[in-house]
Design brief:
The protein contains ten helices and 23 strands. It is of the alpha/beta class.
Length: about 375
């Protein structure tokens, strides 16, 4: 059956269609047209002049709805994913914090089983760690952190093709070999939880690391070494102009003025927005999977308040923060939750923009940037039909 969203301000790769339509057939976009004339036989959905944009592609999220992906069960995955679906995330890469190999195996099995559904919003697994600089552990579980070990990562990558991204600190022994191996297998290598110098970052770039995890968080900036200034990881990433970055856009992990600065320097093509949300996001629960974590001031912290530990943000909040607090243009903010992460994760052939033949993943936003409807693979997500 053909469905037509009419009277819409549609974001396309070419720009805005001020009075456009999106046609949906099955789970695909049948067409995007620059008029709202009803198509014969189509079921009409009146967007009433609201914004129609691609659904959010989340590449860094630990849980939601009271469940954490580290639980490693299909039930936990399903509850967490469904919680974020209702907030505009239509594609998702579930993320594990630093874990043991058995925990990774359990999560990879659950992820693989759920991905057998061709309409699943789950596109692959993201491993945040456990090859990190212990001094920059932040909210990570320190007992799981170690140097890269080929006896671990090679069998895991070869056994579980669902692993699509793996983060590490590039200054660690063996990190270069790790980056070269996983990138050769099509897995995104990302710099994270690190004290990397410029030389470390440059060597990482040469070894296949093309992305930086939660930019500005758990990494060094310019600092003093006795009486002399030294560059930090942040400045080194800026100088590698083609390296992509992700921002936690809750307005707390990175202040709005700095969100705008990152956007201004890196540009929309190399900057994406993430939630880095924990289990308590999109949930009435204030309990995190990690017992060390508390919720305070609208963010997750370690109980001793030594570090932030993740967010309680959802995709719709990211959009509002970027536009309303960081003064980022709406079209670019929407691209940073859809187009850019899709390109980073190499799924732009089917996700990340409203184009004929792509998956029908769509969000509709009102003037205050509140979600009024979410479509995932051509179906309205339950509980989001508020037109």
């Amino acid at each position: 059956m053909l469905t037509q969203i009419i009277n819409a301000k549609v974001l396309t790769p070419q720009g805005w269609l001020e009075n456009g339509s999106v046609l949906i057939e099955g789970n695909k976009i049948a067409d995007v047209i620059n008029c709202s004339r009803p198509v014969v036989g189509a079921k009409l959905v009146d967007a009433k002049g609201m914004v129609v944009a691609p659904g959010g592609v989340e590449i860094h999220v630990h849980g939601g709805g009271g469940r954490d992906f580290m639980e490693g069960t299909e039930e936990a995955f399903t509850v967490a994913v469904n919680a974020h679906l209702k907030h505009g995330t239509t594609s998702i890469f579930p993320t594990l914090s630093s874990s043991t190999v058995p925990m990774i195996e359990a999560a990879a099995e659950a992820c693989t089983n759920l991905m057998k559904d061709p309409e699943s919003p789950i596109l692959g697994l993201h491993l945040e760690g456990h090859y990190f600089n212990l001094a920059m552990a932040g909210g990570q579980m320190p007992e799981n952190i170690k140097n890269p070990d080929p006896n671990e990562y090679i069998p895991l990558i070869e056994k579980w093709p669902c692993i699509k991204r793996w983060d590490a600190a590039p200054e660690l022994p063996g990190a270069d070999e790790f980056g070269k191996f996983i990138s050769s297998k099509g897995v995104l290598a990302s710099i994270a939880h690190t004290q990397a110098t410029y030389d470390d970052v440059h060597r990482a770039w040469e070894s296949g690391y093309t992305h930086a995890t939660h930019f500005y968080n758990a990494m060094t900036g310019v600092h003093k070494n006795r009486e002399f200034k030294s560059e930090g990881t942040i400045e080194s990433i800026y100088l590698h102009k083609d390296m992509t970055v992700e921002m936690i856009c809750d307005g707390i992990h990175v202040p709005p003025v700095m969100l705008r600065m990152i956007y201004n320097i890196k540009g929309v093509e190399r900057t994406c927005a993430i939630t880095d949300a924990l289990a308590c996001a999109a949930s009435s629960s204030n309990v995190a999977f990690d017992p060390r974590v508390i919720i305070e001031d609208g963010v997750c912290k370690l109980a001793d308040r030594s570090a932030l530990a993740g967010s309680i943000a959802t995709m719709d909040r990211l959009i509002r923060t970027m536009v309303q607090k960081a003064d980022i243009p709406l079209d670019d903010a929407l691209r940073m939750i859809s187009e850019t992460p899709s390109k980073i994760m190499k799924v732009y052939d089917r996700k990340g923009s409203l184009e004929k033949g792509k998956d029908a993943d769509i969000i509709i936003l009102d003037d205050e940037l509140n979600l009024r409807q979410v479509w995932q693979m051509g179906k309205i997500v339950e509980g989001t039909d508020k037109l």
